[in-house]
Structures are given as structure tokens and as C-alpha cells.
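Reopening this one. Same input as before:
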Amino acid sequence: MGDTNAEEAVLLIHGFGANTNHWRFNQPVLSELLPTYAIDLLGFGRSDQPRARLKDEPVSADAVHYGFDLWGQQVADFCREVINRPVRLVGNSIGGVVALRAAQLLGEHCLGVVLIDCAQRLMDDKQLAKQPAWMAWIRPLLKTMVRQRWLSTALFRNAARPSVILSVLKQAYPSGANIENGLVELLFQPTQRDGAAEAFRGFINLFDDHLAPQLMEELTIPVDLIWGEKDPWEPLQEAQRWANSIQCIDSINVIASAGHCPHDERPSVVNQILIDRIKSVRTEANIC
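Same output, byte for byte:
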């Protein structure tokens, strides 16, 4: 990866259904401090969108198994081949799980991870004990249904409409800040590409993949949490439990009145936290 004493960089990793443009208020600010990159995970944004292959489906040259090993390897390869210097990873939602997996693969070349409302992946098989008892009964039917490409494509096409995207944003951004036509458009446009439904099919079939706490148990680099106080999908209480029980977590910052994407809903607050954290870690490294 080149000279490990070289200036470090930051890589921003988006969440499900988003893309590099979701860092519109963050990348320009952070880049004044350090070289700052953003990446479109395979299947999203402007990246390739190959067919989805589920774990038990035949291997074919035109299909990939979407999941955190694939995306983690993509990020690790990008860090080695493009960034080519020590890196700090920042991930939102599923991008947080990707960042943790990539950090494992990068080893000493990853300086730390910041998780912004990291996906807790409550539908994973390993989380079944936390689900209502009735979930165990409907799970086999649910799994059988979402495997069907006709159904996953229909679900995707129904969701990939500006009116639905706006409705979801109003849940994700409870304060309503920064929800405007430009945001809807940057999320809508990539859904119109021919292969967009394939990444959706792959993702909704991830019932047995990496969980953030398990990945963090194997890390020794610092992990910092930034969490929207009113996240409707990833409970703050679980993030606080992580902070109190997982050794590598250095800090948790709760963003008042924000939801699932505080970096876009309250960017000035999140940017300052990121800048302060980067500066403090760099100072500690210089002292050492």
C-alpha cells in the first residue's frame, strides 16, 4: 500500500439505496482537512449492477453474491489500489458493516472506523432470538418469497418511485431538514438503471451474513459511533449497548433530533465531530 507514513485519507461509504452523492455536505468539508474519497458499492450508484446470485444458486460468470464480503473486498481493493495510503473509513447504515469488514481485510492500513447509524441487521438469522415469537413461524415463507426474482423486482419497482422515496426520507429525516427535490433525485436516478433491481434482490436475501458487533470484537483499531437520536430503524439503545460492551469503541455521539442519516440531515454537527475526531487521533499518533 506504499509508504505507511504518508498522509492519511478518509473514505466515505454510503448506505443501502444511496450513493456517493449522499455525502454532498460532508466530502467537500472533510477534503479541506484530508484527501477524502467516496465510493459507490457494487450494485448502487454508478457502479456495475451484475445479476444477483444467492448462496445456493449456481455460479455463473455474469452474477455475483451480494453481501458484506463482496463489498468489504471492493472497499479494501479500492483503498489499496486507488487511495494507497493509511485510511479512515466512515460508513452509514449498511456502509458501516462494510467498513468494519473492510477494516478487517486492510489490517494495519486502516487507522479507524466511524459508524454513522450502523445497520444492526435485525432480520439476520443470528438475531432471531430478538424477534417476536411469530417471526419464527413466517420466516420460512418470507425467505421463500423474497428469493423469487419476479417478486423482488416488483417490490423494487414499487419502492423506486419519487413519491415513495420522499415518504421514506420523511421517516429517515425526522426533523425534515435538507429533504428537497435534489435529494429525491440523487436517490431516484440510479434506480432507473437496468440492473438496479439485482442488488436489491441480493440484499433482501442476506439472512446469514456479518453482524457489526461480531466484526468489532475482532478489531483493535478505534471505532467511533455517531447516531441520530430519533433513528426509526436502528435503535439508539442498541448503539449505546455496543458502546458500553465492545472494547474497540472509543466514543458515541448522539445527534439531537436527527434520524438515520445525520450526516445529511445535520451535516454541520456531524462534520465537526468527524473533524475533531480525525484531528485528535492524528495528534495522538504524533505524540506516540
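So the earlier flakiness isn't reproducible anymore. For the record, The first strand starts at residue 9 and ends at 13.
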